[in-house]
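Hi U.,

Before I forget, here's the chain from the pilot set. I'm dumping it here mostly so it's searchable later in email.
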Amino acid sequence: MSEETEPKEFTIIVERKRDFEFRVRFDNPRFPEFTCDEPEPVGHGVGPNASRVLSAAVGNCLGASLLFCLQRSKQTVKEVRAEVTTRVARNEEGRWRVNHIGVKLYVGAKGTDPQKLQRCIEIFENFCIVTASVRQGIPVDVTVIPKT
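Structure:
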């Protein structure tokens, strides 16, 4: 979302702990580590797998982009919630792939100027780095649902 504040390159360490459990460490010591793991029977399911982390990244980026646009338009936003539904299916070679991501964004913007809200809905996706990148290989559908 924010190319101005984001470093142009960063390194994240993903290191195996045991079996299919990996520790993820970020480039900023203020960011907490977390564990990724595959669901059973391959892993132990002690953390999200990569598909879930990808889905969270898409939802976070879209929510942050919409919030940024609304705040720049001087709108008061009380709530932003992304509901991300990811479909995983086998491709032609029989390999599992994420083949669709659907995002519903719920925005609590009571008293928002409808024209400014509509303008942000029209443009905010263009500023989401993650979704724009993912869309080069996976369809991503987005719906914004204003809450009044």
